[in-house]
Amino acid sequence: MNRGAALRKVGIVVLVANLGLALLKGVVWYSTGSLAVGSEAVNSLADSAYSLVVLAGLYLTTQPPDFEHPHGHERIEPFVSLFIAAAIFVVGGLVLYNAVSEVLSGSVVVTRGWSAGAVLAGAAATKFVLYRYCLRVADENNSPAVRAAALDNRNDILTATAALIGVAGAQAGYPILDPAAATVVSFGILYTGVEIVRDNVNYLVGAAPSEDLRAEIVRRAMDHPDVQGVHDVIAHYVGPEIDVSLHIEVEGDRTLREAHAIESAVIQSIEELPSVDDVYVHVDPKELGEWKDDEAAEDLLQYVNGKE
């Protein structure tokens, strides 16, 4: 399955699952009055709303390049992720407000019956399956939007478990545990929003990738037998993908065809890295005096040699 189809399938699966969970939790909330289940119902309803946005966003990001977007549309994905984070912050704030309001009002409802516990346990199990599914697709396709959805599903496992503990505690004679669990749910929701923002800001501001990846870029350039050195190595995020530019140092007696072959081989080697998109290589002949020391490149090469 190609990247576009895989990402769109994730959006559909997550949307259907969240709609089903929101409906089930809403019915149980109406019948039991459990604030913990109610907070989970609101969470799933919000998940359903943002799933629609994710589905639309993933459709846009998987469109092929066109005249106005020659590099494709993948750079939309961090914005989709940040929209998810904004929705999560709103939901987390509402759940926290409702929990605190119920405690202050003194009208804590004691949940009876088994339905509340059953729907929360089922929700936790469903979210675990969705988390693993989304994470696998995100890793296979380098998709920050799907990874954000995976993090939200992982968080929902914890919040559903917290809600389940609260319901069980309320039925055991400690009704305050129900809104307390809803409070835990709210903080879990808010933390997920922070995680998503933190992970996607780097994509938007053009931050450098990890030291491991930068060292691997230098190593691949230096692996070519005709490359004597590298300098001015720049790797940075452009959306979820990485653009690379560097200068390679070669002997100046190479023919134009030989220099072109060296450049092409280095580009191909670096572009084989899964997260790298475009690579730009400039060839510097020794005789023009353009070889120079680059402490950053040397440090990266020592780093990768030290790991071998």
Model description:
- The protein has 308 residues and is mostly helical.
- The chain is 69% helix and 10% strand.
- It has 9 helices and 3 strands, in the order H-H-H-H-H-H-H-E-E-H-E-H.
- A 3-stranded mixed sheet has the order 1-2-3.
- Helix 8 links the parallel strand 2 (241-250) and strand 3 (276-285).
- Helix 1 (3-32) packs antiparallel against helix 2 (35-61).
- The protein is elongated and about 85 Å long.
List the helices and strands and how they pair.
Blueprint: H1 3-32, H2 35-61, H3 77-105, H4 115-141, H5 144-171, H6 177-205, H7 211-222, E1 229-238, E2 241-250, H8 256-271, E3 276-285, H9 295-307
Parallel strand pairs: 2-3
Antiparallel strand pairs: 1-2
Major β-sheet annotation: 3 strands, mixed
Task: Give the spatial strand order of the biggest sheet.
Answer: 1-2-3
What is the number of helical segments per DSSP (H or I, 4+ residues)?
A: 9
The percent of residues in helical segments reads 55-70%
Sequence of secondary-structure elements: HHHHHHHEEHEH
Secondary-structure-based class equals mainly alpha
Span between termini? 35 Å
Shape: elongated
Radius of gyration (Å): 26 Å
What portion of the residues fall into strands of 2 or more residues? 5-15%
What does the average pLDDT come to? 80
Q: Care to count the β-strands?
A: 3
Low-pLDDT ranges: none
